[in-house]
Amino acid sequence: MKALAFLDKLTKDDTLPGLHIEPIKGSADSRIRTGRVDRGYRAVLFKLTEGGAVTYVFHGVYEHDKANHLAERAVLKTNPVNGVTEVRYVEPAPLADWEKEHAEYEAMAQLEAEKEATEGARDTAEETVAAEAAESAQAEAPEPAEEAAVVAKPAEPEVPAEPLLTRHGVDATALAQLGVDEALAARAVQAHTEEELLAVAEDAEAEWQELVLIALGSGQGIDEVRREFGLDAAVDTTGTEEQRILRGLQHPAALVTYTWIEDDEELRRVVEDGDFSAWRVFLHPLQKEFVERDYNGPAKLAGGAGTGKTVVLLHRARRLAAENPEARILLTTFTRNLADALRRDLVKLDPTVPIAKQLGEPGVHVTGVDALVRAVAMKAGRDVGAATGTVLGAEGYDLSDRRDAKAWSEAVDAAGGDLPAEVANETFMAAEYAMVVLPKRVRTVEEYVRVPRRGRGTALNRKQRLQVWKVIEKYRAAGRAKGALDFEEIAAVSAAYAQQRAEGGGGRFFDHVLVDEGQDLTPAKWQFLRVMVEPGRNDMFLAEDTHQRIYGQKVTLSHYGIESRGRSRRLTLNYRTTQQNLGWAMKVLDGGEFEDLDGEAESHTEYRSARSGPKPVVLAARSFAEELDAAADLIAKWSRQPGVKLETIAVLVRTKPTLTKVVTGLAERGVKIRAVEQESVRAGAVVGMTMHRAKGTEFSHVLLMDVRDGALPVGMRKANFSEADLDDALLRERSLLYVAATRARDVLAVSYHGARSPLLG
Ligand SMILES: Nc1ncnc2c1ncn2[C@@H]1O[C@H](COP(=O)(O)OP(=O)(O)OP(=O)(O)O)[C@@H](O)[C@H]1O
Q1: Percent helix, strand and coil across the chain, each to the nearest 5
Q2: 83 is in which domain, residue-wise?
Q3: Binding residue numbers for ATP
Q4: pLDDT exceeds 50 at position 483
Q5: Would the N or C end of the chain have less CB density within 10 A of its end CB?
Q6: C-alpha closest to that of 611 among 125, 259, 141, 232
Q7: In the 8-state DSSP scheme, what is residue 301?
């Protein structure tokens, strides 16, 4: 906070007396300056003067003596191989210590910030300040949790004979050609395991070098890394040193560390917020590319949990809105809670982004996809008849009436026949309807016996198809009698209406469509989103993580008219959680087979984090009461740690009834906990949530409870499931545990009583 106030004053006037900007005698770089942040801490900066303009490069805030120690040795220069501007030290220094103190300072500043009022309006900046990312207090590695009652620790993997980078075909020469420091490269090529490489990478003085090593260690090809970080361009050596340094600060690799605070409005916002949320300012080069690039058709961004897919969508929405204030931009996702979070974060990113409240208004319209489907259906009004005719072969539905949950089993009973149990059940029928019948607009038995059933795991012969259609007819007849539609039907009807409206010259509802959590959408919803926008430049941008599919069936977009192949890329660096938590979560995925929305096999082995922390703890108990005791103790311990607020601790469980029991049980043991369902998280209590509700959220400490055999995977009536439906249901349970585990930023713990869940391996 104080660092931000310092930066703010500096952009106004660097001669302000309170700043005490001073050179250091005998410093290795004559540009170095230190400035007063408060009694005990000083900022370290470089002052560049070029063509009469002054630019400060903000290096960080340190305790007084360390600041001087650093300032004596730090040198700002460009990397001779690639031109990236970096800070180097004339002699190796114990950076880790300084960083620790830096983080302590941030934690202290955070506490003080709570007491202090934020400063008011700002004047226009005269200088430009390139600010280095301030390590946030939350990035501080917490104390390892004590491993009480631990029964299961992950087995230590065997160390392979060949070093990690050698196995990926990378040697010291290749690293030198990228511009990685010789000493760092020499150590990196010796690392045998990912953990060792991560430890080496953490010592990199330049952040881009750390990220490059992590990317190469995860198996990313060297050419791809070179392209991603802009290391393939020829170095421009013209001009003065000052000019080269300024140019090197604009390099894609430098922009992971430096940003330009020229825009006073931007700085004011960051200062007033009292937190320098890195995601608002610093993007990974690949994230930046996704924000800025134009695509001639639907583009897809895949990526593991916490790789910043949502961050990219928010920046992209803002970019599109800034480029064309008249543009109608849809930012949508699966649930209302997630849409609310997207809206909040978009406003946080930039309160000047126009938010469209009504369908058809210019600006960014942020809404859950079901709400949008209904809004479009309501718009259709009387015109909806033609659309229901196209989809269902009948008219006269009331769009506000929903089907009830038992409708499928009633239809199965009413149709009779001798279908095998694994077909004659609600799960199979609802999926057949959503995956084949509705998206293919099947209205008659003749159409149904001929329709391709691509992607459906269970084959049906002609006789079985006739019988399945009987069930579907019963289902439709019951709906018609009530005039009611289910969620999928209304999406298909709204899609048909929007299509007919566009074909009749009525135009589209949006100019750009951005979708988060795409893996959870059904075919009818994809078809609906497809017709919201005219095919063409920047029409659709989709973010997905197939490993996080926890609803519905696997969808291949090209089957439903959305062709993103050739415009698909993947983010692999996890910004949210530690390597230890991520490693644990990825092990959960090991037993499953996954395909993305392009129908390509998706692996999770490339996901990495640059952060380190304690290993996840698994607590075993003999009874539910004992599990609650252990959980209450653990939460009490977490909440006593400095800086940990209750609402940053979450307890996640598989089902709503378990949530009720856990919240009651923990409250009886003195834990201040609140169950959170539709509403958003409020301060002052530990958060209890179902794992489904936790999708898209994050907490510093996460405890997954009741992860026992019989509770996760949740009990299924297995006899009634076809093999394919059972496999898919189990895959979703696996994904759910992965989603839940990847909500933890710093500390993850898992508990169960009785026998552990088979998903724990
Ligand atoms: N470039 C960045 N710099 C710093 N932090 C970042 C960056 N990108 C993302 N983050 C942070 O990482 C976390 C995860 O980001 P985000 O929610 O966008 O990821 P996601 O891929 O959508 O995750 P999930 O699929 O798990 O919901 C957030 O706390 C976000 O602020």
Answers
A1: 45, 15, 40
A2: 2-138+237-273
A3: 303-310
A4: yes
A5: C
A6: 141
A7: E
